Amino acid sequence: MDVIAGKLGSDILLLDISDITLIADYFVIATAESSRQLKAIVEDVQEQVKKEYGKQPLSVEGTPESGWMLLDYGSIVVHVFSEAQRSRYQLEKLWSDARTIVRIA
């Protein structure tokens, strides 16, 4: 979470989804104010996770220009959205049964 906050992502949310699905244990959801910031956040997450935990994402989906990117680390999935795409996909609503671990507004 510090990695995302460090690049000035906003409305950062950590959801525990382990009791409601098998696809992952946690979702991290954050908003970027521009495609440039979205790219910087994703690159920094990848760099910091590799540096601190020696892990590469299993897959990377989306592009900064699309307003959404996903980093799949297996048990943790990181979603970084533009404001418009976050509003469109409404993952918080979709996963409303998940337990909120932390929210940094």
Structural domains: how many: 1
Helix content: 25-40%
CATH level 1 name:
Alpha Beta
Order of helices and strands: HEEHEEEHHE
Question: Concise description?
Answer:
This protein is α+β, with helices and mostly antiparallel strands and 105 residues long.
Structural commentary:
The protein has one domain: Beta Polymerase, domain 2. The model has no long low-confidence stretch (mean pLDDT 93). By secondary structure, it is an alpha+beta fold. The protein is built from 4 helices and 6 strands, in the order αββαβββααβ. The protein starts with a helix and ends with a strand. It has a 6-stranded mixed beta sheet with strand order 3-4-5-2-1-6. A hairpin with a 4-residue loop joins strand 3 and strand 4.
